[in-house]
Amino acid sequence: MSQELQRRRRAIATGLTPYMNEPLLLEAISLWQQTYAERPRFSLQGFVSELCQMFDLGERRHQIHMSLVQAMTLSEQELADDPLAGSEENPAREHPCSQAFEQIMRSLWEGIGARAASQLRLDMAAQLRSNQVGAETRLTMEYWLQAPERPLAPLTLAALRDQLNRTYVLLCERLGPVEADQQLKAAYQNALQTRIDPTALRQLL
Prior knowledge:
The protein has helices spanning 3-16, 22-36, 44-55, 61-71, 85-88, 96-112, 114-127, 135-146, 157-175, 177-192, 198-204. The protein is an all-alpha fold. The model is unreliable at 87-93 (pLDDT under 50).
């Protein structure tokens, strides 16, 4: 994410904080990041309309819109902290399971080919809207899947295992269980040939 988009994400957090608790705020930022981040600033009105429908905030629509408009004009010093800053500032090497998951995914995508990998990432992003996926995991994974060349921010081992299992289910649906098993096994073996902590890889499976 560019510095400008990151600044706008901080502005979104600043403008919404008075009206939402942390779980709802993460949901709102996830929506903005997935649907509105690349749109012009005047699309804020559409974003606010969708938020109000999602969270039943219709009575505060005008206040929320004005709060966001004002937040977009604030200086860097006046903006709230980036909701993802804490995890993004920690290098992946300090979180071996997240790094192991990332390597398995990269090996898997390479193994199935660019076209199938692109579709799989779209499927992975779509299933993140499930009610069983927490807001923090969804936000982190959406951010990474939008540009998988950047490092994956740290997630818990339970969340990573869940995402790997969901990916396996998607593979079975597209390739069949036999080839899905083969592709996942090959991705695991390829990951073992890198500098990834083998213990972390075993923990994921």
